[in-house]
Amino acid sequence: MRTAAATIGTGESRSSLRERLTRRRLALTVLMLLIILLLVAIGAVAVGSEHVGIGQIAGLVSSWITGRAADIQPDHRTIITDIRLPRVLTAIMVGGSLSVAGAGYQALLRNPLGDPYILGVSTGAAVGAILATIFGQSLLVSRPIAAFIGALVTIAIVYLLGRGRGASTDRLILAGVITNAFLSSVVIFLLTALAGSQLPSAFSWLMGDLSGEFRLMPIAFTLMMAGMAVIFACARSLNLLMTGEDDALALGVDVGRVKLVVYVAASLITGAAVAISGVIGFVGLIIPHAIRLVGGSDNRLVIPASALAGAAFLVLADTAGRTVVAPQELHVGVITALIGAPAFVYLLMRRM
Predict the structure, then answer these.
(1) Residue 255, C-beta contacts closer than 8 angstroms, at least 6 positions apart
(2) Could you give the CA distance from residue 21 to residue 302 in angstroms, rounded to a whole number?
(3) Max alpha carbon distance in the chain (Å)?
(4) Alpha-carbon distance 290 to 103, whole Å?
(5) CATH fold of 87-351, please?
(6) Structural contact between residues 158 and 179, judged by C-beta atoms closer than 8 angstroms
């Protein structure tokens, strides 16, 4: 009896030690990525066609905190507060959201190719957002909600197409690619219904644009944070699901409920991201996979690390788009595609 009790006590101690080590590792990783994100964000605000000194940025932030007047030129104040800072904040939210959505899809599908863009969810959200723009007076939902509905309908269609005997995650990915191709045609068709003055801005938004929809940030921010919190709350269950659905069921995971919750949450944050930034591909493919390569596959670490790393990645990509061919500008979706398409081919070849 004593031996059994000692064994149980030792097992509990080891489990507690592993838990503490995981929390310590999580805290260190999050702290390091937060510092990186802060440095990247400051650099993005400073860099551009008109350089703004870091001292001026620090002085402006200090004035917001203390309430004292900042010694900064009016045009630099305008550049920071009205142009660059909103854009950086949008990139942080969108990059983090798409990365967490990708981490959720990859864990559910047990496939590194799971990504909101590849599965067609981003394009489905774009369809919903465009419908809300065209029929804005008659629709009872705002653009972020309409985009969420479009994303949710799309993932439901992909799931139904990928089901069947012998269904595999590869079949779901293929169903997503086909659905994405079809919805891209629908998007082009819907764009023809827009008025001539709206068409250029719509095409710009469709290629990924972080400069024009900051007014939607409050509702989009709420939806993104709610979705990311739900996915993180399911991290333990996702860890068990990655070993296989039968094993997860045997260990007490309600597989059907977890899959439904994560699919809905991932679609929610994808829809909110698309509503304010357009279709930005491959962020949810590159970042979670890179985090797993570096830090392992524990979703308790992967999900928050993906949020921070994805935010920093998209800020860097947008900064590159603003500066590489200045005074012209490359859409951020072009930058992410140039990086993500080769990564997709590499992962596909590895899987084959």
Answers:
(1) 241, 245, 248, 249
(2) 15
(3) 82
(4) 11
(5) ABC transporter involved in vitamin B12 uptake, BtuC (1.10.3470)
(6) yes
Dihedral Cα 341, 345, 347, 352, nearest 10 deg: 160
| Domain residue ranges of the chain, discontinuous segments joined by + | 87-351
The full DSSP string for 70-125 is: P---HHHHHIIIIIIHHHHHHHHHHHHHHHHHHHHHHHHHT-TT--TTTTTHHHHH
**Quick check: pTM over 0.85?**
yes
Residue with tokens 């799931």: 159
85: CB partners within 8 A, 6+ apart: 45
| Omega of the bond leading into 200 within 30 degrees of 0 (cis) | no
Q: Residue 89 corresponds to which tokens in the numbers above?
A: 């904040």
Distance (Å, whole) CA 70 – CA 61: 9
pLDDT per residue over 57-94, tens digit each?
777 777 777 777 767 777 877 888 888 888 999 999 99
Please count the other Cβ atoms lying within 10 Å of the Cβ belonging to residue 215.
10
